[in-house]
Specification:
308 residues, TIM Barrel, 42% helix, 14% strand, carboxy-lyase activity
């Protein structure tokens, strides 16, 4: 199959999983208006916008069972939601290529079980999604370390997505998530994660937040090992365009650590920023070789056995 691009950060809202979540919290659409985007769940309509150019790696939009229910119920919901994600991949090829699985971080033993028995063995999955904070704590908190260690042991990459820090009174969709990503990256670096787990792969949404813009502050203020560890992250291109910002991300992280990601179907109506980002990459000064790495080769190299 000829691939133009692989969108590594595309979202869905699995319909059956969503109905279960609504039973737990009926106010979810009012609390998080972005989940009402129709193409998150209406995949028949979403197929109408698929032009064969961009294959999508799907992950659940920000609804985490651990925030609404008991550890046992959260485990059951994640297991069910992961099965549904896998079904969506199989039912919507070639639009959907792979899925990113959910884990219940209020049930660490259950999360490790899912990694071992549900996620690692199934070809529909290529990673897990974690969030910048969980249960009121930074994702770098030592209580979550077993999840990183098991993912490292199994060779499963981690997709890092932001959430709002509820301690803050001024969260907003434009700037807050970029800060949350940056702070989580800092916390992970300080935890010496990359020393403990040298082969860990973490893909950070939204081009790594603020990090590339503050590269010199990082280099001059932090110890050298911490500063260098920031470049161990992988990042996507989900910044809705902006050729110069894309060039900066590549300059900082390196061409091998940037992957095409759009946040589809969010960001630009009606179906996301895919075409805008393809156009932005064409406007950069990046070579064709580098753009091909970003568009699909880096993902194909990362995911062993990928059939694209």
């Amino acid at each position: 199959m000829t691939v133009t691009a692989i969108d590594v950060f595309a979202h869905v809202l699995p319909p059956k999983f969503y109905q279960e979540m609504l039973q737990l919290e009926p106010r979810l659409p009012q609390m998080y208006p972005f989940i009402t985007q129709p193409l998150l769940s209406d995949l028949v309509k979403r197929q109408q916008y698929f032009d064969g150019q961009i294959n999508q790696v799907i992950s659940n939009v920000n609804l985490n069972p651990e925030d609404y229910t008991t550890p046992d119920k959260a485990l059951a919901l994640c297991r069910q939601g992961n099965d549904e994600l896998a079904e969506l991949v199989l039912a919507n090829q070639p639009m959907f290529l792979k899925a990113i699985a959910m884990l219940p971080l209020n049930n660490i033993s259950g999360a490790l079980e899912l990694l071992t028995t549900q996620i690692a063995p199934r070809k529909e999955f290529c990673g897990i999604q974690l969030f910048t904070r969980a249960l009121g704590k930074s994702i770098a908190d030592e209580s979550f370390y077993p999840v990183f260690a098991k993912a490292h042991e199994l060779g499963i990459p981690i997709w890092l997505h932001p959430i709002f820090d509820e301690r803050k009174p001024d969260n907003n969709i434009v700037f807050s998530w970029e800060y949350e990503l940056t702070q989580a990256m800092y916390d992970l670096v300080k935890s010496e994660l990359f020393t403990k787990l040298p082969q860990i792969k973490i893909i950070v949404h939204h081009a790594g937040g603020m990090v590339p813009y503050f590269a010199e502050r990082i280099a001059h203020i932090l110890p050298p090992k911490q500063a260098s560890d920031f470049k161990r992250f992988y990042v996507d291109t989900a910044i809705l365009g902006n050729p110069k910002a894309l060039e900066l991300a590549v300059a900082y992280y390196g061409a091998d650590h940037v992957l095409f990601g759009t946040d589809a179907p969010l960001g630009i109506t009606p179906a996301g920023a895919g075409q805008a980002l393809l156009a932005a990459l064409d406007e950069t000064d990046l070579s064709l070789e580098v753009r091909e790495k970003i568009l699909h080769e880096n993902f194909e190299k990362m995911i062993v056995g990928d059939q694209t």
